[in-house]
Amino acid sequence: MKIAIYPGSFDPVTKGHLDILQNAAEIFDKVIIAVAHNGEKKGFLPVEKRVELIKASIKNLNNVEVDAFEGLTIDYAQKHRAEILIRGLRAVSDFEYEMQLSQTNSALCDKVKTVFLTTKPEYNFISSSTIKEILANNGDISKFVPDAVYEYLSRKK
Ligand code: ADP
Questions:
Q1: Residue 38: what pLDDT?
Q2: Which of 15, 50, 87, 128 is catalytic?
């Protein structure tokens, strides 16, 4: 059984994240999308809310679980018997950071491999930080985020 972890901030989850997740769910037997607690950064939405919004957005994916974790991603992966980490690549600008992260993780634990996926072109440019900026300036984010996120953020304003 091939279990993959898709770790990230997902603050908030976007259609880009969901496209990566859908591809991963087609390739692997089970995928755990795991929201990382970042001790230093408070974040835009609380981790529990991010988890709730992901759950509301993935009802069509039955081999996907949603969770949150603290600490090292490789420790979390090993605890869940996962040997694959999924990360997404948008542009060359992501590459350097993602490469360093995957090499650090494999230096810490060579059993856990990182697999990079890309999205459909129409979701490629989407990022959580741009969404927060559009929202802060009263722009329309409906094209970029799943319905549950759009509804929650519209109410929250
Ligand atoms: P992190 O803070 O760990 O980078 P993010 O929630 O920003 O968490 O992203 C999680 C992963 O999803 C990262 O590998 C990121 O590059 C990828 N990702 C985010 N948006 C997209 C997108 N639109 N297309 C492809 N990959 C994406």
A1: 81
A2: 128
